[in-house]
Automatic annotation (TrEMBL):
The keyword Glycosyltransferase does not apply. Its EC number is 1.5.1.5, 3.5.4.9. The gene is folD. Residues 154-294 form the Tetrahydrofolate dehydrogenase/cyclohydrolase NAD(P)-binding domain. Keywords: Amino-acid biosynthesis, Histidine biosynthesis, Hydrolase, Methionine biosynthesis, Multifunctional enzyme, NADP, One-carbon metabolism, Oxidoreductase, Purine biosynthesis. Pfam families: THF_DHG_CYH, THF_DHG_CYH_C. InterPro entries: Aminoacid_DH-like_N_sf, NAD(P)-bd_dom_sf, THF_DH/CycHdrlase, THF_DH/CycHdrlase_cat_dom, THF_DH/CycHdrlase_NAD-bd_dom. GO terms for cellular component: cytosol. Homodimer. Residues 25-135 form the Tetrahydrofolate dehydrogenase/cyclohydrolase catalytic domain. This is Bifunctional protein FolD.
Amino acid sequence: MTGHAAADLTSGGARLPGDGVASPLSGKDLAASIRAEVAAMVAQGPAPKLAIVTATADEASAWYVRSLARAAGKVGITCEVVDLGPHADAATITATLVALGTDPGTHGVILQTPLPAGVSAREVALAIEPARDVDGANPVSLGRLATGLPAYAPATAEAVVALLDHHGIALAGKEVVVVGRSTVVGKPLAHLLLDRDATVTVCHSRTVNLPAVTRRADILVVAVGRAGLVTADHVAPGAVVIDVGTHPTADGGLVGDVDAGSVAAVAGALSPVPGGVGPVTTALLLRHTLDAARA
Ligand SMILES: NC(=O)C1=CN([C@@H]2O[C@H](COP(=O)(O)OP(=O)(O)OC[C@H]3O[C@@H](n4cnc5c(N)ncnc54)[C@H](OP(=O)(O)O)[C@@H]3O)[C@@H](O)[C@H]2O)C=CC1
Ligand SMILES: Nc1nc(=O)c2c([nH]1)NC[C@@H]1CN(c3ccc(C(=O)N[C@@H](CCC(=O)O)C(=O)O)cc3)C=[N+]21
């Protein structure tokens, strides 16, 4: 289904015909093939090791750490969770990151957010060794990414581009609107998209008349952290919509930043939550860890 949609898009048409049912841009197959590739490579050498540093009691973060550790285990990557507790200070977090940056048995380092009150994520992330910064959290990594030097991109930003590529959606010359300017998603993604010759607009909470801006998009990427913020009136008929948001629901489900019910009727293609960007993010973190181990 999506293969057909992709053919329409890559053949020069900016948008898909809005036929009332958006093609689902699943990330599951892509994530599975990345994981299989990583597992095969891991099997050929010593096991890479990923260290996850956490200093929070946040339940969502804990869920994410558990799911990442499980995914790592399945491809043969060793995962060490270093839990410093919700009251750790900046000096302790920094010292831990510095030690993991030189520990010969460690290859990838992730610092979980949120951090304890008063600890600046950006300041402490400077202590992550860039060669092991598999989620692109060190400001140095973002600077390298922005200037075309080799660096690990934040896995989520890279996952958005990988998902578009996987579905054959061309980027060169396209109007891409990114809603959200965070250091984890919006900013690095803007650089990745510019590198692919897209015309990029980045929106945020002070953007005036958001729907008017987002309706210009051939490809709309939403990473605002607000469930259902983007509705049908934000989307041009036939546009491709990528939903980065993840919000647990009361009944144990997961919804995105896009109101999928209304947007699916207007968009040409829409990435689902769950099953879209999320699984690709996790798979790319594993690939980055393998790359760091083999570098
Ligand atoms: N699937 C995955 O792998 C990942 C998913 N996520 C999810 O993506 C979402 C975004 O995450 P993250 O980037 O970390 O979030 P942040 O809260 O760091 O950033 C949100 C951005 O959205 C902007 N924004 C907030 N409200 C509005 C609004 N009403 N109109 C326009 N812009 C708005 C903010 O603007 P301003 O800068 O002006 O405040 C900010 O730039 C979350 O749901 C998160 O859970 C995040 C990382 C990975
Ligand atoms: N520096 C930083 N990097 C991150 O990558 C980061 C972060 N901070 N803060 C929190 C968010 C959240 N996040 C998710 C990744 C994968 C899924 C994922 O795989 N979800 C499955 C669903 C699982 C289910 O159904 O419960 C899916 O979308 O299909 C979800 C959420 C990464 N984050």
